[in-house]
Specification:
The chain has 5 helices and 5 strands, in the order ββαββααβαα. The protein is an alpha+beta fold. A 3-stranded antiparallel sheet has the order 1-2-5. Strands 3-4 form a two-stranded antiparallel ribbon. A hairpin with a 5-residue loop joins strand 3 and strand 4. Helix 2 crosses helix 3. The relative contact order is 0.15.
Length: 172
């Protein structure tokens, strides 16, 4: 799990919370070599004393990938692009493993984006924009209604008996 990240989006806004889960496995023939040759800081120790080989290393690769991939997307469009983001994060991790010649030892099965929360300011701004757009649509409808009413009155005025009709309508 890679949790509580705050990457920058392409629109330079900060994501409030970005959480990812990375599913990886180790080649059984590489386990002893990894345990002996790799820095102990790359591994994690569980509550029961279990050693999770390369957990911290994969977590760091995931963190780096999230920060670089998130920069390609606008904050409010990230949730719509989850499958693409997951694939790009996975690809970035695999590329790093290949650079470190660990791609035969560590396999990245899947990457799951668990949560993407844009900052409160971005959400508030987007809501304000939607509200302003709705107000504009409302004003356009009001203008169209006024134009139609003006055309109706003009048509009635063009008719000789319109004055009597309008007086009769006013008294009803």
């Amino acid at each position: 799990d890679v949790k509580d990240l705050s990457p920058l989006a392409s629109d330079n806004s900060t994501i409030k919370d970005f959480d990812v889960a990375i599913v990886y496995s180790l080649n059984p023939t590489s386990v002893a070599e990894i345990y002996i040759e790799k820095n102990r800081g790359f591994h994690a120790i569980g509550d029961g004393g279990d050693v999770y080989l390369m957990y911290n290393y994969v977590q760091q690769l995931g963190r780096n990938a999230v920060y670089s991939v998130a920069r390609k997307y606008e904050a409010l469009k990230m949730n719509d692009s989850r499958p693409e983001i997951e694939q790009q994060i996975r690809d970035a991790i695999i590329a790093n493993l290949q650079e470190e010649q660990l791609n035969n030892a560590i396999s990245i099965q899947q990457v799951f984006v668990r949560q993407i929360l844009p900052s409160d300011g971005i959400v508030e701004s987007a809501n304000s924009l939607v509200q302003a757009q709705n107000e504009l649509k409302k004003k356009r409808v009001e203008v169209e209604t006024a134009k139609q009413e003006a055309e109706r009155i003009a048509a009635l005025n063009a008719n000789a008996g319109a004055v009597e009709y309008m007086q009769a309508m006013a008294t009803v």
